[in-house]
Known about the structure:
Layout: H1 2-13, E1 20-31, E2 39-45, E3 52-61, E4 64-70, E5 75-82, E6 90-101, H2 128-136, H3 143-153, E7 155-156, H4 185-198, H5 209-215, E8 217-218, H6 220-233, E9 238-245, E10 251-254, E11 258-265, E12 269-273, H7 275-280, E13 296-301, E14 322-325, E15 328-330, E16 333-341
Helix pairs in contact: 3-6, 5-6
Amino acid sequence: xxxxxxxxxxxxxxxxxxxxxxxxxxxxxxxxxxxxxxxxxxxxxxxxxxxxxxxxxxxxxxxxxxxxxxxxxxxxxxxxxxxxxxxxxxxxxxxxxxxxxxxxxxxxxxxxxxxxxxxxxxxxxxxxxxxxxxxxxxxxxxxxxxxxxxxxxxxxxxxxxxxxxxxxxxxxxxxxxxxxxxxxxxxxxxxxxxxxxxxxxxxxxxxxxxxxxxxxxxxxxxxxxxxxxxxxxxxxxxxxxxxxxxxxxxxxxxxxxxxxxxxxxxxxxxxxxxxxxxxxxxxxxxxxxxxxxxxxxxxxxxxxxxxxxxxxxxxxxxxxxxxxxxxxxxxxxxxxxxxxxxx
Length: 343
């Protein structure tokens, strides 16, 4: 009887030993010829920690490269270059094995929580967020309340046009208003198109927490930036994670990045949250407050990256390749991500 009761409790509340998944990850970049102009390319570089083990890292490229340290957040990245430029397409293929754990709160070594307070360029604190906290009676003693507030106020969507899938049900609905500004789905599209024309970041997908609270429609970057602005204003340390969700098939392509966050409680460690995944599956909203699954890869922690040799300021987000040709930002590359199960 005791064994049966224990099994039931494990099913309800989870088990102290997490689920685990092993897979190979392939990060591929094809760079266009630069016709003799200097090429510099930066890629995120994965690291092991208490919830993931990285091994067998290989980088295959004709470009010279160095593994560098990103000092602010303790990340690593690959710096590839050809000072003499190139005259034919060049590939970079980085492969590595990952053993990833489902996990709850963890105490990570050499991680100072005080480094994860304050603002980033697109994740401000204070002012408007303090007003939101006061009006909605949010508290540092109830982080679940902040999580629920962001979850209820945000809607997952990336509508770039009126014929885009995110414009239509189940993502956005005709006649409904979104965000603190009470915009329609047509206005969300107009805001996106304006941002593209003006090259500004007041739209979804940039992790701009002012946009997130104003408009209330976005992707994982927006949910977790909004969450971080609120709890950092409450003086609770929080980190931003970027990586990839790994489908549960045996192998295949990965369409794009994924991000999530964690927050720190003294003596208990860092608690993960994945609000955008909870919004896609509201039946799992309790799970994704304090737990994240093993079907993911963590590549970079933090925001506002300063990279050696990069001539165009700080990087708001760093998960995709960043390319400069003759010290100017270039889109002259394509990228592919894929995986293969190892067990």
